[in-house]
Amino acid sequence: MPTTHDSHHAAPVRAAFLPFHVPSITDEDIRALVQVLQSRWLTTGPRVRQFEEDFAAFVGSRHAIAVNSGTAALHLALEAIGVGLGDEVIVPTMTFAATAEVVLHCGATPRLVDCLPDSLNVDPDAIERNLGPRTKAIIPVHFGGRPCRMNDILDIAARRRLTVIDDAAHALPAAHGGRKVGTIADLTCFSFYATKTITTGEGGMVTTDRDDYASRIAVMRQHGASRDAWKRYAAEGSWYYEIVAAGFKYNLSDLAAALGVQQLKRCDQFWEARRRIASLYDAGLSDLEEVTTPPGDEGLQHAWHLYVIQLALDRLTIDRAAVIELLKQEGIGTSVHFIPVHLHPFYRDTFGYTPDMLPVASAAYQRILSLPIFPDMTDADVWDVIEAVHRVVRRHRR
Ligand SMILES: *Cc1c(COP(=O)(O)O)cnc(C)c1O
Hints:
Blueprint: H1 27-39, H2 46-59, E1 63-67, H3 70-80, E2 88-92, H4 98-105, E3 109-113, H5 124-129, E4 135-138, H6 150-160, E5 163-167, E6 175-176, E7 179-180, E8 187-191, E9 204-208, H7 211-220, H8 229-233, H9 254-265, H10 267-285, E10 291-292, E11 300-301, E12 307-311, H11 320-329, H12 345-351, H13 359-367, E13 368-371, H14 379-395
This protein binds pyridoxal-5'-phosphate.
């Protein structure tokens, strides 16, 4: 029988549930979308052009090519460098499945590699161990927004003449060694999925300094047609186009791009807010021996897309799933990033991966927990999360 003296049945930390993520949408964002509707031009057009120009200026790349998802960005980047049948591409296992699936869509094989135990970013030594005669490219994923060890990775790529495609789905804005993510690798792929650091609902971008990659991606995002539709239908355009390759339907709509233009203006402001939340978490959780906070951002710009803690399970009587459930009962939404790719049935059964083949990621997977981190969170929200984590841990100490 629950009583008011039983702390397990005390009122939850929050009466109103705090979701894991809420996108930041202003009246100005909404007005920008209404304007697109009023213009009657909904598909790829002037707002996509604007978003691309603004984005290239923001990261400092020569080209920015907008597409309708981060997955499409990765697929077209691999296509542009000519990854095909029989090739291998190095993919960190600690990522979302998209990073691996696009390699398969090119007819190539993803070589899943292990991560470092603290940052959960790809381990450069593991990359080295997985190189082979058919390796064509490396896709570093800047996990949670923290740039990978790019000096080591670029060094490996230069020695072996490999192309580097950054999966920067988490890394806007981020920088490493004074260089912005978006200008470091040969090609960089961003995502504007609803939970990412800026959003267009669904969307993505490829940045590159190479003219040949940029023009190939621009053609392949729209059926392999030699001209963009909006140029054809604009007053000065022509009805004529030529299909030069079997392309894809990966173009971004002007509706989505209009939101992107607005969100990009607030990108640095969003980042300041997330950085502040991360430092509050650091301060509020550092005294808990049952919790390891993520490594700091000394010497680099961390986008703080995710704040991933690791639970010291040997100090707790419950597992991660129970912690998630108990935090939910306290009114706090959380998530897990990621189920490592090699543990998914398709990759396990197709390629024969076992958990012990990628031991660091397999072990980390049991311990990782992503706490809410989005710009509209108030300091009181952050302290509620901290209080809830303290409560759950305190009640289940070993
Ligand atoms: C979100 C994400 C993607 C895919 O982006 P979409 O826009 O959802 O297609 C790729 N890689 C990582 C690491 C991601 O988190």
